[in-house]
């Protein structure tokens, strides 16, 4: 792996970690369910995407890197569906508190 | 301090924490969580022993590691049985606690072996 | 660097364990326990036990988490008396007992024998005879196959135990509450889209388990999760406990395992001894038979007691 790719990889992972941090701060600080979801879904999806992007050049085989993309896709799918469900429950007032 | 000692001590604390929760908390669901934490501590000691036994190119002794997989699956089966029991207890008695009546009372909350 | 990461990991694991024990609200404690389970998987990775980490994520955190969250949310609606606190004496004595056990265990950990005993070299020397490349699979399916057979049997007994807790009037009925959801909603959509992907991944995990981390337990958990998703989305119902296909599915894996064990008696001179030349083939047959049985078993354990008549 040459130095440029190494640098880009580190930059992407660091940016991803920053988005995770931002999302978590939002989760803890925002006042209600919908804004917390907003912080979580936007920041976490972008953060995970960047981390996957940064990790991909570190694998020897393209197959292993492709598996990482599948993981990213599945997490996106799951978090999209779960935030829909949570948001709907929040709108109907099903959530406690 | 190397990693195996660190995780070994962590495991000892986990067993202690779980034991405290198991003895002190009167709610069966909380007892179950505490029991699982005791189990995790024991599993962690087992994994530490496996890691110390790294040999022949393996990252850890594969025999205790394989037994750990068995243990995790069996722990789930036991938890499922326990959850079914406590939900039935709740259905029959309407209570989420196994403490004697009058929760504010200074009675002994321990029990349940 | 690694040590710093391990220290942070240990601090987080212990912090979440304290939260799971001490939080006042049972639901909050359960959520803490779920996150704790996921972090525990990182501990197994740090201890170079990748197969154990996969199992922990799938079963320890995933299935157990789903089980406990389900129980906590059902109990939450009625939990008016959740604030009871045990007597001071109980707490002091419990704390002393826990501290004593912790100190004793810590002493055992600090004085573990050196050099450490290991079976690694024996396993490595005999791996060639099993035909598989993953030492964990070799131990589970060849050297300690009896343990794995008993484990599959224990799961079966757990299902019988859970069913036996059901009220008499529902015997032979369906497990768990009825699930309904909007047929055009997002959950129903996921219930249609995800299972094909999940089934492919489960088969991949089973197959790759011969040579790399993975195997039937992890694959079966994914299958059980897909099944549970379909049930929760209201697309299918749990089959009634009296259904013969369901019962056959439950016993298929252990039955094949026992039958092939007796093949070992005939051809190799011992129960569960794989005859030379057929080791890998027989191991693969047992794993393929076990995975769907384990998936049904785990799914039924998650569903719980029988709560509805079959009609």
Please characterize this protein's 3D structure:
The complex is a heterotrimer of chains A (97), B (113) and C (311). Chain A is mainly alpha-helical and 97 residues long. Helices cover 84% and strands 0% of the residues of chain A. Chain B contains three helices and no strands. In chain B, helix 1 runs antiparallel to helix 2 (28-52). The longest helix of chain B has 32 residues, at 62-93. Chain C has 311 residues and is mainly α. In chain C, helix 7 runs parallel beside helix 11. Chain C is globular, with a radius of gyration of 22 Å. Chain C starts with a helix and ends with a strand. The model of chain C has no long low-confidence stretch (mean pLDDT 87). Chains B and C meet through helix 1, helix 2 and helix 3 of B and helix 1, helix 2, helix 3, helix 4 and helix 5 of C.
Q: Brief overview, please?
A:
The complex is a heterotrimer of chains A (97), B (113) and C (311). Chain B has helices spanning 3-24, 28-52, 62-93. Chain B is mostly helical.
